[in-house]
């Protein structure tokens, strides 16, 4: 009887102690939930398919919304959201450079949770992105077309052809050299090159500077019906190789590139898949080569050899950046800061 009484005392004492402890103790750090369940999933059971990583899209890039599922990239367990009430749970927050208004006014007001990474993302070249001093030491990660960013997302990439893919056939051609351009500035290197090249070869130029408005269908039809397409970038920077290259490759035209050096292109695509303007001493010599290839179909066809092995995938603006960011965060949970963004990007 006596020992039962002692035991009861002990239990009461322990209960009071635990009650006091849980009432007054609150942890000063919050631990992220790496198995994040949405309410609907909680009703059933949490399984290994549940999101373990939350990526908050702070602003839609150029106001364009995109799909929030990462299935198309075979990336799973991601919760992409634009709902800022999830800020405190987010493992990553994506900030699109061109939607930042020159200062930190539009940024989160709340302190950054200790596990959260801020991701700077941008697909425009330095010449078309303004440098913002306040951003210099703010971010943890970069997501950009550059291969040396933390989460590289090039404009396009090559993947192996599969047995179920349609066999590639070069589309019928009725034009020699084509160029579609919208952004025309006299000082652009590409404009100056075109002005010389057109003296030696007929270039069919389209787009707003030439008084055309092209639909997506026109764009596809024009490019595939040209033997060569001028893949001239608006500015010349390392890895700045855009859909101006990947679209003609995909549509069956041979790209003539103006952009970073040949070696840099060869980091992205096979060396026999394109013609580089720097391979020639002058626009006149380039024109002579294109005319030669027009008359020698066997040699021309060699520019499509890569199609036996690879096909082009264009990346999905915004959607792919958010999903690749989620995948990166799943694989890299640790501490990471990115110092000196401005020096890295604008030099
Ligand atoms: C629990 O999860 C398993 C595996 O994902 C699934 O087969 C089962 O149907 C789930 N149960 C309920 C009640 O949703
Ligand atoms: C995703 O995986 C499936 C099956 O493994 C495959 O058929 C598909 O091509 C993959 N998609 C991508 C985008 O990798
Ligand atoms: C954002 O999330 C909160 C909390 O989950 C929810 O109550 C709210 O309805 C959501 N807002 C929108 C616009 O989806
Ligand atoms: C993210 O970067 C900020 C600013 O450099 C830093 O204070 C913070 O600790 C970093 N967080 C993580 C999770 O690396």
List the helices and strands and how they pair.
Layout: H1 2-24, H2 39-43, E1 53-57, E2 78-81, E3 92-96, E4 117-122, E5 141-144, E6 151-152, E7 156-160, E8 175-180, H3 189-197, E9 203-206, H4 216-224, E10 226-232, H5 243-251, E11 254-258, H6 262-266, E12 275-276, H7 283-295, H8 297-301, E13 310-314, H9 319-331, H10 341-346
Parallel strand pairs: 1-2, 1-3, 3-4, 4-5, 5-6, 8-9, 8-10, 10-11, 11-12
Antiparallel strand pairs: 7-13
Helix pairs in contact: 3-7
This protein binds 2-acetamido-2-deoxy-beta-D-glucopyranose (4 copies).
Structure write-up:
- By secondary structure, the protein is of the alpha/beta class.
- The protein is built from 10 helices and 13 strands.
- The protein folds into 2 domains: 39-153 and 317-346, no CATH class; 158-314, 3-Layer(aba) Sandwich (Rossmann fold).
- Helices cover 28% and strands 17% of the residues.
- Helix 3 (189-197) crosses helix 7.
- It is elongated.
- One 2-acetamido-2-deoxy-beta-D-glucopyranose is lined by residues 44-45, 47.
- The chain crosses the membrane at residues 7-25.
Rg over CA atoms, rounded to whole Å, is: 27 Å
- Ends apart, CA distance between termini: 83 Å
Q: How many discrete domains?
A: 2
Question: Architecture of the largest domain, according to CATH?
Answer: 3-Layer(aba) Sandwich
Spell out the CATH superfamily of the largest domain.
Answer: Glycosyl transferase family 10, C-terminal domain
Tell me the strand order in the biggest sheet: 2-1-3-4-5-6
How many strands in all? 13
